[in-house]
Structure of CPBP family intramembrane metalloprotease:
Amino acid sequence: MEFDDNSSGKRTSYGTMTDFELTSEKVVVAFIISIVLAEILLFAGMLQISLTLHFLTLIGIAFSTIWIRDTDILCSLQALILLPLVRIINVSMPLSDVPIFMYVNIYAPMLIPLFFLIRHQNLSASDLGVTFRHIVRYIPLSIVVGFLIAEGEYIAIGPGYLAAGMSMEDMIGIAVIVFFFVGLVEELIFRSILQFRLENLFGLNAGLIFASVLFGIMHSGYGEPAEILVTTLAGFVLGYMYQKTRSLPLVVLAHSFANIFLFVLIPITGAGLGLL
């Protein structure tokens, strides 16, 4: 069953009413807390417990939708499902000698649930922010923002996760992965879908905060508190840019340039691209 377009934020309900119905936004907050707790457990090295909690979150969201009739709550929960899926796929896929290459194994499969969620919720290109208006003027902005984010992440995680000494073929491969998998898929999840739905449910400010915190905590796999802080701040910046422009290409470009600076250029030139 597809949803009617709800991009205006107007609260609606659908389906046949039952005797028991979940309507409180606290249901969404509870599952957000569950995801955050699962990532904290992962950060603490408790992988099995973390995955168990993520799995229980998936089951809990699935069962809770039986009693939910409020469209905004239901759509927000369906968006949240994407995060445990990312983590479960993340730890299930084979590793690569070059860390950035493992992301194709994570984000390519995520295109499948993304496709069905977008279709099920009847999200239009406008809802998703697919617009190329002002894209020429956005490119310099995305490069600057991407560079600043990359510098912050480099300071946070250090060079250990980066792949210095790569061949030209590897660098081209990374650029393709960054643009067509990492940047696009993450921005679709966190900005076009999750932030969009949480803003409809909680309002612009709260929706931005929730989406940004989730974006940061989902980087707990690096095991660095500073990385979580930096990516949370990056989430605020990207989320604010998206909120003001509703341009998916802008945040995809900024996110992608950040990863290219971080995984390709900085390992070659050093911090500050060798200019500082």
Summary: Confidence is low (pLDDT under 50) at residues 1-20. The chain is about 70% helix and 0% strand. The two ends are 56 Å apart (CA to CA). Residues 96-274 form one domain.
